[in-house]
Each structure stands twice: as C-alpha cells, then as structure tokens.
Specification:
Blueprint lengths: L3 E6 L6 H13 L2 E8 L1 H11 L6 H11 L6 E7 L10 H11 L5 E5 L3 H7 L4 E5 L8 H6 L10 H14 L3
Parallel strand pairs: 1-2, 1-4, 2-3, 4-5
C-alpha cells in the first residue's frame, strides 16, 4: 500500500522549516500532500494580533506549487475550515471533513503534540512525527518581525514580502 502523507498547516507565512518537513517526508513517503488550512475568521484574528496582512490560501498554494514543480511526490491543496471553531474545538467535525476531502491520505505528518489527537480521530492512519525545531523558526516569529526573519521565508514568497516591507516601511 502506498504511503500518502498529509502535512496540514496555515503556512502563514510559509518558511524553510516547512520545506524541511516536506522534503524529509517526501523521502520516506510515496506522496506528500501539503494541505493549507484556511479560515477567514482565524486569519482576521491573526491580522489584528500581529498587524500581518491577510494571506490568501491560493497565493500560499501557488508558492508551494512553484517550489515543488520538479518533485512529483509533493501535491498541494487548500482545505477551507471556515465555519469550524478554532482548534481544539470541532476536532471530530474537522477530521470527518478532512477524510472526505482527502480519501487517499493514510499518514498524518505532525509534531508529537498531535499524536494522541491523530490516534483518536485518525485511528487507521500512520503517524509521521516531525521535529518542529530542526530549523528554529515558526510562522508566529516571522509575523511578529517580518523584516528580521525574511531569510526564513520560502524563496518563492520573498519578493512578495520584500514589497510589503517596503510599502509598510517596516524598520
């Protein structure tokens, strides 16, 4: 049976830590789906908390597709969570919706903090554990200081963020 993994996240913004996870998983699995979760209510909350412009999931998808254009093992999709309450609420509804949208996935890619969740809601899936700190950056850190952390953003998105830095006159 093919091992088809799903790496789910906001990727808000996508950074080289995400690429590291995807690259490593694509070495071990037959296929890796990068699933960009989007929720307009959550995105507005992030914007209000960090003064970080709203990123469109389709734009994030485009950057990942460009980055992995030569790797047929990596697929990219958007998963709309609008209408669901924020994690950890509605986990059961989220899991059912996920399995319906991505029926071929049989491996969940996540850090150890999600192991029990996956065991409960995805009992027939394998769990592929990742270390989120191999590359010491998280999207929250980038949102808090985009100019200082620009080098961590994936190459395909850098020009977009350089333009934002210039337009907003970030110091």
């Amino acid at each position: 049976m093919k091992k088809i993994g799903a790496f789910v996240g906001k990727f808000y913004p996508p950074h080289i830590g995400h690429l590291s996870v995807i690259d490593n998983a694509s070495k071990d699995l037959d296929e890796v789906w990068v699933i960009i979760s989007t929720n307009q209510i959550r995105n507005k909350t992030i914007k209000n908390q960090s003064n970080f412009d709203n990123l469109d999931a389709d734009l994030i998808k485009k950057w990942f597709i460009l980055h992995y254009k030569d790797n047929p093992k990596v697929k990219v999709a958007v998963f709309d969570e609008t209408g669901l309450r924020p994690y950890p609420l509605d986990r059961d509804i989220w899991a059912k919706k996920f399995m319906q949208k991505f029926p071929t996935v049989n491996v969940k890619i996540a850090d150890e903090g999600y192991r029990e969740y996956n065991k409960e809601y995805f009992p027939n899936y394998q769990f592929y554990s990742i270390d989120r700190d191999i590359i010491p950056i998280h999207s929250t850190m980038i949102r808090e200081n985009i100019k200082e952390n620009l080098d961590y953003i994936i190459p395909e998105a850098k020009d977009y963020f350089k333009k934002i830095i210039k337009e907003k006159n970030y110091e």
